[in-house]
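input
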Amino acid sequence: MRLTEEAVVEKYFKKIDQSVTSWMAGRCLIFLRVGLGVIFLWFGVLKFFPGLSPAENLVRNTVYFFDPDIFIPVLAAWEALIGVGLITGKFMRLTLLLLFLQMPGTALPLLILPDVVWNVFPYGLTIEGQYIVKNLVLLGAGLVLGGTVRGGRINPDPD
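output
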């Protein structure tokens, strides 16, 4: 039986697709973990230097019930520690716990400072609001990583 040209092309692309998805599956978790770690480390370290973090005023105005000169360095260390844990892949359960404990605080301005995060409620976000809502992606990445702490992996071909 002779394959049609279309069937040969389909078979060729299926083989390429399998190779590419296998390559991605073998590397995606480390890229996700290290990339997320860089974000946390970077954002955390910025908070150690007054005036350097674009989130500093947002944090100061949101957590007004704590002394910001104490709270911001603690938050900076917390975020940097999450970043180091993710980058190194060490103590992942503790690292992810710190990440998940930190996340609700990042959403506080949506409730406490609505005039700062919304141009038009509930869909018109300011740049500060967008900065906060992007944390949904960070949370999702943390969930994916959390799903692998017991050895789980991405399966590129579940068939």
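quick obs: The two ends are 26 Å apart (CA to CA).
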